[in-house]
Amino acid sequence: MRRVFAGACAAAVVSLTLTATAVRADDGVWYAPRGPSFVVVAAPIGVFVPVLPPFYTTLWIGGLPYYYANDTYYAWRDGENGYEVVEPPNDQGASPQTPPGAAPPGEDLYIYPQNGQPADRQASDKYECHKWASAQTGFDPTQSAGGVPPEQGQLKRADYQRAMRACLEGRGYSVR
Which among 31, 34, 30 has a CA at the least distance from the CA of 72? Predict the structure, then answer.
């Protein structure tokens, strides 16, 4: 377990108590109180966070996206509407390259909050727009090959991207 002492802890994005130990997270760094200071600790497995740290990397393992930041792996969980801290997956074949049927390089959406929406609002807006766009188009980029037959992948992806763009722009974001 990593242990680095800090004199103070910034306002936490996530604050929770596991058993008798309070844990806080701020931009992907996890802290626990130790006397008058804080110590940097490993993220507790099974904890859910509403947003990923800003410096995460997406890794595709077994056709599923995992998000990696600061020695911690996260996986999106629809039922919880958040990212769960998970054990490191079996990384045989792990790649930052998207699998066949996933977004080709250069087709990611770049989203800017024009109205100063806070990070938690951005995450919920993106998720709600994702759900809506998936329902409208039948394409879900979190599923292997988008959940559609390979011959439909490119067309359905383009439809999904247009639907995401329309939804996010309607909520006050600039989308490119």
Answer: 30
The Cα 103–Cα 90 span in angstroms is 23
pLDDT digits (tens, 9 = 90+) for 23-81: 777 777 888 888 888 898 888 899 888 888 877 788 888 778 888 888 899 988 877 87
Residue 55 has φ and ψ, to the nearest 5°, of -110, 25
- Pairwise pLDDT comparison (50 vs 93), residue with the higher score: 50
> At 42, which helix (H) or strand (E)?
none
Report the alpha-carbon distance of residue 161 to residue 105 in Å, rounded: 14
| Rounded distance between C-alpha atoms, residue 79 and residue 120, angstroms | 17
In the block, residue with structure tokens 């760094």: 29
> What is the rounded distance in angstroms from the CA atom of residue 37 to the CA atom of residue 24?
13
Can you give the pTM of this predicted structure?
Answer: 0.49
Please answer whether residues 87 and 45 qualify as being in contact, where contact means their C-beta atoms are separated by less than 8 angstroms.
yes
Query: Do 105 and 95 form a contact (C-beta atoms < 8 A)?
Result: no
| H-helix or E-strand spanning residue 54 | none
What is the rounded distance in angstroms from the CA atom of residue 40 to the CA atom of residue 6?
Answer: 7
pLDDT in tens, 128-172: 898 899 999 999 877 777 888 888 888 888 899 899 999 999 999
Phi/psi at 146 (5° precision) = 75, 5
